[in-house]
Structures are given as C-alpha cells and as structure tokens.
Amino acid sequence: MTSSSNTVAVVDYGMGNLRSVSQAVQAVAQDSGVQVIITSRPEDVRAATRVVLPGQGAMPDCMRELRESGLLESVLEAAAQKPLFGVCVGMQMLLDHSAEGDTPGLGLMPGEVVKFDLAGRLQADGSRFKVPQMGWNQVRQAQPHALWAGVPDDSYFYFVHSFYARPSDVRHSVGEADYGGRFTAAVARDNIFATQFHPEKSASHGLALFRNFLHWKP
C-alpha cells in the first residue's frame, strides 16, 4: 500500500467490534474511491489516510491488547497527524485515565473516564436506571463539528456502556446525552473525533457520521 492511496484503516488489535464497524465504513465508502481495510499491521496504519479505532469490552484489556499487538505507536502517530475516529472504548482510550481498572489511557485528550453512579435512582417512568446503559438515546450536538453535517440535533444513537468520558475542557465535548444526568457522548479535538455510542449500530445517522469522516479535512 502506498501513502498516496485513499485508505481507511480499521485497527485490529483484538478488541474491536471489527466486522460491523468495517462493514458500516465500507457501505458508505462504496463508489467513493476510498479503500477500507481491517489491519493488525502497524505499517498499514501508518500508510492509511484515515484511521478508525474501535473498542469494546473492558478498558484495561483494550489498552493491554493495543500495547501487545504492536499497534500502539502507529495509532499515536496517526492521532498526531491524520483524521482518527474512535468508537466506544476506542473513545475512552483517548483520554488520560479510566476508573475501570485504574487504567492509564493514551493521553490524547485531557480528562478521565468514570462509571455511572445511578444506584437506587429511578427514571421518569418509575423504573430503575440500569448499568450498563443499553439502547437508544438522544444526542445533543453540544458543539458544532463537520461530522455532524446532515445529522439532525437530538438524533438517536445506540449505546452500550457502563463508563463515560469526562473531558477536562468542555470544548472537547461535542455531543451530550442524558442518562441520570448529562454525560459526554462524543468528543473532538483537532483531527480526532470519537463517540461513546456505536455509529455502526445507529442506522442512517451513524452511517452519516462515517460518511462525513471519509471526506473530513480537519
């Protein structure tokens, strides 16, 4: 692969929802001239034009697998210079630290990852809040961003998570949702955009985010 090819690398470090993420990106890349690859090779990540960092499961496992896969350095290099889209735990990993397993993150965005504290709290319908949050929730576009183009404010996206990001700088929180209180559902800084929700499971609005990412020039 040459660095001049228009390629999106979906990083395979053993912990991502790879098939559904890559299929969603491939679906929006059809007839666009963009090639989508799933790769566990650092050289492919370095050569790609754009990078998607998926993640699911526990933060300590994700960080360990990213290190042991040999992909950590190439992901950090990508985050410093090319468009990068983080998904779910792939978003949480971008921050400084997670309370899940007392785990250091990649330090690409100041802030921490904390757990929902909703014990004994009741929702409007009288049912208890469940952790993890699992299902559809509205996302308010807290800051304007190119990747929101064509996505109506307060659109629904699909979530599965017990922990959420708390950026130190409110300007990095570009999407917010409510689950027992406001929390950050999407972050962005410079050439990085990431979501706590799963765009690949969020129907047309999720696909719109990936489509915008293919053409984003931060």
From TrEMBL:
Superkingdom of the organism of origin: Bacteria
Signal peptide stretch: none
The keyword Amino-acid biosynthesis is assigned to this record: yes
UniProt keyword Cell division, yes or no: no
Known catalytic reactions: L-glutamine + H2O = L-glutamate + NH4(+); 5-[(5-phospho-1-deoxy-D-ribulos-1-ylimino)methylamino]-1-(5-phospho-beta-D-ribosyl)imidazole-4-carboxamide + L-glutamine = D-erythro-1-(imidazol-4-yl)glycerol 3-phosphate + 5-amino-1-(5-phospho-beta-D-ribosyl)imidazole-4-carboxamide + L-glutamate + H(+)
Family annotation (Gene3D superfamilies): 3.40.50.880
Keywords of this entry: Amino-acid biosynthesis, Cytoplasm, Glutamine amidotransferase, Histidine biosynthesis, Hydrolase, Lyase
Pathway: Amino-acid biosynthesis; L-histidine biosynthesis; L-histidine from 5-phospho-alpha-D-ribose 1-diphosphate: step 5/9
Active site (UniProt): C88 (nucleophile), H198, E200
Gene Ontology molecular function: lyase activity
EC number: 4.3.2.10, 3.5.1.2
Annotated ranges, domain Glutamine amidotransferase: 10-214
Compartmental location: Cytoplasm
Family annotation (NCBIfam families): IMP_synth_hisH
Subunit structure: Heterodimer of HisH and HisF.
Functional description taken from the UniProt entry: IGPS catalyzes the conversion of PRFAR and glutamine to IGP, AICAR and glutamate. The HisH subunit catalyzes the hydrolysis of glutamine to glutamate and ammonia as part of the synthesis of IGP and AICAR. The resulting ammonia molecule is channeled to the active site of HisF.
Name the record gives this protein: Imidazole glycerol phosphate synthase subunit HisH
